[in-house]
Amino acid sequence: MGDLSGRTALITGAGQNIGAETARVLAARGATVGVNDVLADRAERVVEEIRAAGGEAEPVVADVTDLAAVTEAFGLFGPVDVLVNNAGIPLTGISMQKFVDEDPAGWKAFVDLNVYGPLNCTYVALPGMVERGWGRVITISSESARVGDKLIATYAASKGAGPALMRSLAKEVGRSGVTCNSLSLATQNNAGMDEASDMALKQLRAYAVPRLGRAGDVAAAVAWLVSEDASWVTGQTIPVNGGYATS
Length: 247
Ligand SMILES: NC(=O)c1ccc[n+]([C@@H]2O[C@H](COP(=O)([O-])OP(=O)(O)OC[C@H]3O[C@@H](n4cnc5c(N)ncnc54)[C@H](O)[C@@H]3O)[C@@H](O)[C@H]2O)c1
Fold this sequence. Notes:
alpha/beta; Rossmann fold; 7-stranded parallel sheet; 9 helices; globular
């Protein structure tokens, strides 16, 4: 049994990649995991994998941008002890272009997912954590928000909201046994970039550890943040970035 026995953990956007691996790792540590995704088939597949490995999991199908849907789906799952706000890349993906070339019609998708997503999910899950006197909220952000990055300005701007929310809530709920933090990620190996390509090799020159991130890197950091070992860590934005930026 892991250190999360008796706890529940709800991970948004957990139908694949980082969220799915985080769900697997928290389930392996004993949590009953809520696998949220807007696409039911993805959530159900991850739930089946976790159950096949001996863990406990339930699908929590909802669009995190829709407060009514989140309220209903989280309510069916039950009390949430650990919330990981991970859903963050629109189903349409991210196209790289100069800010002034962006179509403003595309901005809303980023604001809805990366600002309203964490707002909605945290708004629904946090009161129960405070009432029960224990909780963990972790929002997955991006180095593009923390240190800036060209050609993805709107994505970066929207990813800045999560850490700001976590910092402020940390100060509101720290006395209730609830911690709120963010992980700030550099590029992952699922971002559609071939690690042997010229583009990747050029990018990796900026990384002290010369490889792209892996879902396991993020899941391990989440597992530490939700453990008792990290009970004095709150309000932080922690880079998980291969040394891409060092302060
Ligand atoms: N991949 C990277 O290189 C990278 C870099 C920095 C930060 N991040 C952040 O890490 C997180 C996870 O990234 P990923 O690469 O695993 O994403 P992904 O796109 O591979 O998976 C995200 C999942 O979220 C689901 N989803 C999308 N919109 C949703 C919604 N409205 N409601 C519920 N679920 C929804 C998708 O169906 C998908 O299964 C995101 O917050 C992202 O911004 C990723």
